[in-house]
Design goal:
It holds the Pfam family GGDEF. Keywords: Nucleotidyltransferase, Phosphoprotein, Transferase. One of its GO terms (molecular function) is diguanylate cyclase activity. Its EC number is 2.7.7.65. This protein is α/β, with parallel strands linked by helices. The protein is built from 10 helices and 12 strands. The strands form 3 sheets. Strands 2-1-3-4-5 form a 5-stranded parallel sheet, sandwiched between helices. The structure holds guanosine-5'-triphosphate.
């Protein structure tokens, strides 16, 4: 078999992740042999299990049998394309049918390509490689679109998307989820005293300090707007999140950035909330942050949910 190198630039440097869906294990085995060396291969023999794997493991490409008992390939493809968190997964239908109407139906449902059985391994590899390259490029563009230009941390759009995904996960697993909001104190006075360029530099240094406080790969820091930052901490309860917030307060204070507007140094006020579902967490953290402001700034407050 001619060897075609598969792109290795999937998100976070991981190997491309492929999901094989077919109700006949023998077909899955045949495809598994083609991709086992280059890809992380996930397998499912029914549509429901495949959908769950898409939610839990976010494959880059799905090779999907059209005819399956229960949820068939078209239904699964429609489910994926209707979900904002899953619609980026490229779907390639693998089917015994080669009637143009079937192909049109599949492409209309959002499939990226079509492969007919019995398949030629070299052709399948080439087609999957094309989809993996396109997927890696669109992941890169998404990544760039999700970064804040001033500070280099994620932006609010990315936070909102991750909050939705982590909320679903927290509800499913009953794991706690925490949000920390951090706002630079008297930042208007800082800008007024030193100018906007110095203000921008201050925001960059605060962002770097906040980022240094996050240790887990699943923790997320984003610029929420202006001089406000937000952290999403999966699998973290209120006590854990208060600890992270306190470390952030200490770390920014330790920068000892002079703040002429208050005759002291730059501080942040933080609000913390935690719960089993994302809805209301940001609002609760915002309320807590205003409590920290009202209590004198440069401190952490929290609300139980
Ligand atoms: N330099 C700079 N300033 C910004 C940026 N985004 C927002 N700001 C400024 O941040 C200031 C926020 O002011 P306020 O919302 O009144 O809050 P504050 O002065 O920090 O006061 P407290 O939050 O009550 O401590 C405004 O002057 C904004 O212009 C930015 O990207 N760069």
């Amino acid at each position: 078999m001619m060897h075609i190198a598969l792109p290795g630039h999937a998100p976070a440097g991981r190997r491309p992740r492929l999901l094989l869906v077919d109700d006949q294990p023998v077909n899955i085995q045949a495809l598994h042999r083609v991709f086992a060396t280059d890809c992380q291969v996930l397998m499912a023999t029914d549509g429901q299990r495949a959908l769950q794997l898409c939610r839990d493991r976010q494959p880059d490409v799905v090779l999907l049998d059209v005819q399956m008992p229960g949820m068939d390939g078209h239904e699964l493809c429609a489910e994926l394309k209707a979900d904002p968190l899953l619609r980026g997964i490229a779907v390639i239908f693998v089917t015994a049918q080669d009637h143009p109407d079937d192909e049109t139906r599949g492409l209309d449902a959002g499939a990226a390509d079509f492969i007919t059985k019995p398949f030629n391994p070299t052709v399948v590899r080439a087609r999957v490689r094309t989809q993996l390259t396109l997927k890696a490029q669109s992941d890169l563009l998404r990544e760039l679109a999700f970064v804040d230009g001033l500070t280099g941390v994620h932006n609010r759009r990315h936070f909102d998307e991750r909050l939705l995904a982590e909320s679903r996960r927290a509800q499913r697993t009953r794991a706690p989820l925490a949000v920390v909001l951090a706002d630079v104190d008297h930042f208007k006075r800082y800008n007024d005293a030193l100018g906007h360029l110095a203000g921008d530099d201050c925001l960059r240094r605060v962002a770097a300090a906040l980022r240094s406080c996050l240790r887990r790969p699943t923790d997320l820091l984003a610029r929420y707007g202006g001089e406000e930052f937000v952290c999403l901490l999966p699998d973290t309860d209120l006590a854990g999140a208060i600890g992270v917030a306190q470390l952030m307060e200490d770390t920014v204070r330790a920068l000892a950035l002079p703040h002429p507007g208050v005759e002291g140094c730059v501080t942040i006020s933080l609000g913390v909330s935690a719960g089993n579902q994302g809805t209301g967490l940001v609002e609760a953290a915002d309320r807590a942050m205003y409590l920290a402001k009202a209590a004198g700034r440069g401190r952490v407050s929290w609300v139980e949910s």
